[in-house]
Amino acid sequence: MKLLTYCMAVGGIWVVASQSQATSVGVIGLFKDKAIVSVDGGPPKTLSAGQKLSGAKLISATSESALVEVDGKRRTLSMGQSFASSANASQKPTVILSADSSGHYFTQGAINGTPISFLLDTGATSVAIGAQDAKRMNINYAQTAPVPVGTAAGIQKAWKVTFNTVKVGGITLNQVEGFVVEADINPALLGMSFLNRTDMKREGLTMTLVQRY
Fold first, then answer.
1. What are the residues facing 15 on neighbouring strands?
2. Over 80: is that where the pLDDT of 167 sits?
3. What angle do CA 117, 121, 122 make, to 5 degrees?
């Protein structure tokens, strides 16, 4: 059974506001008194403390977090986090991922409420995590017989599971099929059992995911 292709990636994530009047800002780089941000899904820009970009203003920044003001509202954001000043409830949840120089996508998310790092891979059949992460999430995966799956390290034993929730940015999907692989997988793999339930659009170094159901 084919599982996926494995590759390394770095990048950021932010949530796009759903109205033209709204402003969203995502933090994809942090330094002392500076931050790399994207506003309304635009290209990343480096702001110094006090500088503005569209409806967003960087108040202060450290290597750990940035204090931003969006349309008069202030929020403290760490790497990969985002804030939108308003949202339209009828708009489907949307996430934009930024790629590294090799075109690969990495982001933070959660499985069953437990934070985890993801690598987006359209060659993956399912979301996949390692056994150590499964234990950390208290997933009792060994109730069924293992099956062989192909990974970058060769054929490995894996157990088919169903994750209660898989979350990336503002997108949360319930009852997502996945695998727990005996070998360690770091980051976890965001495969097609999640991606098939979104509309994907790539433009340059950005990938937009829109939740379908």
1. 95
2. yes
3. 145
Helix (H, G, I), strand (E, B) or coil at 87: coil
Q: Contact 15/84 with Cβ under 8 angstroms?
A: yes
Q: Can you list the domains of the chain with their CATH numbers?
A: 19-86 (2.30.30), 97-211 (2.40.70.10)
Average pLDDT, the chain: 82
Query: What whole-number distance in Å separates Cα of residue 77 and Cα of residue 137?
Result: 25
Phi (first) and psi of residue 211, to 5 degrees:
-65, 130
Q: Strand order of the sheet with strand 45-48? A: 45-48, 34-39, 24-31, 82-84
For residues 58 and 30, give the distance between their C-alpha atoms in angstroms, rounded to a whole number: 11
- In contact, 116 and 65? CB cutoff 8 Å: no
> What are 132's two structure tokens?
């150590």
Neighbour-count burial for 194-207, b at 16+ CB within 10 Å, e otherwise:
bbebbeeeeeeebb
Q: Is pLDDT at 8 greater than 80 in this prediction?
A: no
- Give me the amino acid identity at 194: F
